[in-house]
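Team,

Forwarding the record for the chain on the shared tracking sheet. I've put the sequence and predicted structure together so nobody has to dig through attachments.
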Amino acid sequence: MFLKFLKLVLLIFISYQTPLYSKSATFNDFNSRDLSNYFSGIVAFENRDNSEALKFFNLTKVLINKHDSYLKRYVNSLVLDNKVPQAINVLNNNANKSNSDFYDAYIILIIDSLKKNNFKKADEYLTQSLKFQDEDRINLVIFETLKQYIYTFKNKKILDNKKNFGNLSLIAETFQRCYIEDKRTSSFFLNLINNQQGDYSRYIFFYLNHLIDNNKLNEARLVVEQIDYINSTLLLSQSKSWVDKEKFDDFGKIFSCKDHNDLVSEFLFLISNLYSSQDNFEKSNFYLNLSNYLNPKFEFNLSLVAENFYLNDEFDKVKRILKNFKKEDEFYYWFRLKKEAQIIIQQQDYENGIKYIDSKFNKIENPNIKMIFDLANFYKNSKNYEKAIDRYTEIILTLDDNSLIKSDVLYRRGGSYERMGNYERSDEDLLHALKIDPSDAYILNYLAYSWLERDYKINEAMDMLKTAYDLKSNDPYIIDSIGWAYFLIEDYVEAEKYLKRAVELMPDDPIVNDHYGDILWKLNRKIQARYFWNNVLTFDDTEDDMREKINIKVIEGLKNS
């Protein structure tokens, strides 16, 4: 009976495959054990439990030539499990067979060819992959960019008449010019780094790498002088540390513009980031593992794998990845400790997570200001405001009076004072922060909201919120604040306009739903009000004291309304 059920489910599943993968052997060719294992593998694969899927697929390799979809899932599972050489072997053993004709197969074989310095073969596989460009809008970008790279590797010059994908093409050409040692490489890097259409600070690392490779050490020192530890990425913080400590050789140990594998690896890392930004963590990890296969020296890129697994609640996998980060690379080691603490918080509670990060921090000799800042944020998020204030104060004492970083730290310390009810010190910090940076919408929003909640300086608070809204009109938190401000001055019609938009932007936020419910009640739309209050009770991150208040509202409505 069970076998019949499996056959029925598998038949339904296969019937929904695309025409390319629709043909398969008859069910008479499957024995019950293979069928059961294959079905279990499919379920695990679809549930993104890749390790479990691979276990079942390994038990059913006999199906490689009997069911076309098997090979695709099996190969993808191997790559996602970071077993790229095995995936390559499987594809090579099935070369020229119809079941190996799928997009990911060609990408893997292109990477294999590049690894073997066989640019001609890579070009052939690339041409074959073109027929799949409509499957995903990013596929064409990958095709055209790899085409440019392979041309440059073969001919030692830049391809003319190439398609332009904006800044993606600028990144690719910058690296290609670095590869052929073009005299304009530095200016291309500077154009990229100073581009205002996005954050391209990552490429400061590669610019530093280029400068150091050309023995321009003083120029490298001047570049890192502009980098501050608190607001920099992991890679830039580690780069600054290397330059400050004269550890110039460490740059070349992980990347070289003269190595074509390193260049394509960085391009694949970029593609991985694009997929990660779309929350497509499976695709992201697929390209990230191929990137790591081409350049395993650049272990720092594994931090993205760790983040992907963390966002997918795959904490055991995160822990395995984190073991790659050693003490000698202090910022990635600190990333490891932070992520381990976050996992403890998720699996246990804040108290144990803070104990862990505290104990590890205390063992670090001469902790960097970034580490102190991160620890202060841990304290603040865990509502340990006194300790947070102590750490923020430690940082503030080291900063220049007009520093934007000081403004940010004052904002955070002021928020901690506000949470403790020390409004005098809170206002002092927040006003000081605004004196440094009057156009910071978030500080304006926080201070104004605090004043409104205290029924203090209402008119000034409204003016600050209007300024914040003009600066960040699409920010849901600021939209919520200005809507709530109108509620507090009893302009419910105007308040509803803003809170309705805030709910649309943040439908799962407890405070926004609570505020919108209050406004609807005042507008005598009581059924709708209770609907949004009830929403608050369904959210996992609704705090207990809010739940108590919402339960009363659902039963009694707004008092004194």
